[in-house]
Amino acid sequence: MESNSHIEQRAARNVIKLQCAPLDKVRIGFVGLGVRAKRAVERMMHIEGAEVVAICDLVEANIEEAQHIITSNGNAPADTFCDSEGWMRVCEHKNVDLVYICTDWLSHAKISLYAMECGKHAATEVPAATSIEECHRLVETAERTRRHCIMLENCCYDEFELTLLRMAQEGVLGEIIHGEGSYLHDLRERIQSNDDGGRKWANWQVDFMKKHNGNPYPTHGLGPVALAMGIHRGDRMKSLVSLSSKRISSGALVGNMNSSIITTEKGHTILVQHCISLPHPYSRSFVLSGTKGYAQKYPVPIMALDPEGDRAITNDELTALLARYTHPFVEQYKPIGEPLCGRRWIDYAMDSRLIYCLRKGLPLDMDVYDAAEWSCLVELTEKSAAMGGAPVEIPDFTNGCWQQQEGHSFAL
Ligand SMILES: NC(=O)c1ccc[n+]([C@@H]2O[C@H](COP(=O)([O-])OP(=O)(O)OC[C@H]3O[C@@H](n4cnc5c(N)ncnc54)[C@H](O)[C@@H]3O)[C@@H](O)[C@H]2O)c1
Question: Which of 50, 226, 276, 375 keeps 20 to 30 A from 220, CA to CA?
């Protein structure tokens, strides 16, 4: 238990809206070069001011493929590391400004922590951590080292989510009382075979899920909802209850469906669900339910607005409404990102924003508190579910600073 004076000291050096010295070029070191990372390396080839200078993986073929992407785009080869300590060499590398982490879930926090200790900014794939202790350590280390630690939650950059963020902030939905976010994705075949686009390493996802029975992957669903509901920007997640359905003992995937309800300080609620082992059309839910209106993205986009709150507005009306509130980032990044990466243009938007903000010395779109708050559900959902859905407290990772801002904003 921290003393009050210690909490006050921590609050005084919080990294909300952290600004660091602008970087002329952002020199990137990649840790993990699997399916996800190679796409990121490719994207960086098309982002002004980004340079990939060091890469490492445990599989030689992944290094060769990533190096090929770099050199075939006319760049100097990156320094390569292919052993169990290569990730440390990347973090220590004198030319690296940003460590971009695309490894398995269990190693994200360890690498982010060491990157920050080495004076580097850390950008990590989701989730940023798998335990409460790691979440606390990420926050404490970012505050002490004054380094950015961003979780690469690409779903926050999807078109509907960005547009609804704008609509929510302009008051179209009124006060948002309830939100829903999920990861419902029938991955049975892809996960069991560990061939999710050409994975070459261990089946770390199934290994993790065999041992845990909560929500191991909460951030795609929760992230965009948390931004729209102003989490640690005027409100904060206070506690949750969680239940997991029965396990299928014969299968490698366990805990078919996990459902959790979060309560916020303002008395709002957020439902977060996870299931990758049942037939289900892909869904991240993305529901915002406010005093003046309702919006959902999946399975089909629907909105209802006062004064006809009980009527789903027609397709034509919806198209016109979404066009009217289109987020500027959609207009800025989709026309370039879509021809390069198809539906993954949202990743291009995310990386472009990251490099832009680092080059300008601006606060990043999401901070270490987002990373900790969204990732802490990995442990807390399991803990609550193990107690039959008993409430568990969600730590205030901001040490009381969650009211410093009112609503999310992008630095421009
Ligand atoms: N945001 C998204 O939409 C999205 C989509 C897919 C995957 N992901 C995330 O990206 C991450 C990677 O997923 P993937 O599909 O690329 O998996 P993958 O298995 O293809 O890649 C992981 C790589 O990390 C390497 N690795 C593990 N430990 C390492 C270490 N200590 N040092 C160096 N290399 C190490 C492995 O060799 C492997 O090549 C996961 O966290 C996953 O959840 C996110």
Answer: 50
> Fold for domain 155-330+363-393?
Dihydrodipicolinate Reductase; domain 2 (3.30.360)
pLDDT of residue 197: 72
Q: Where are the domains of the chain?
A: 4-153, 155-330+363-393
Instruction: Give the whole-angstrom CA distance, residue 137 versus residue 134.
Output: 5
CA-nearest residue for atom 38, ligand 1, is 34
pLDDT digits (tens, 9 = 90+) for 352-390: 999 999 999 999 999 999 999 999 999 999 999 999 999
Atom 25, ligand 1: residue with shortest CA distance:
32
What's the confidence (pLDDT) of residue 285? 97
- CATH 3.40.50.620 for domain 4-153, yes or no, is no
Q: Give dist(CA 324, CA 358) in Å, integer.
A: 30
Ligand 1 binding residues, C-beta < 6 A: 31-37, 56-59, 62, 86-87, 102-105, 107, 125-126, 154, 196, 199-201
Question: How far apart (Å, rounded) are the C-alpha atoms in residues 366 and 110?
Answer: 20
- On the question of a common fold for 4-153 and 155-330+363-393, the answer reads no
pLDDT tens-digit map of 158-201:
999 999 999 999 999 999 999 999 999 998 887 777 776 788 88
Contact 305, 172 (CB under 8 A): yes
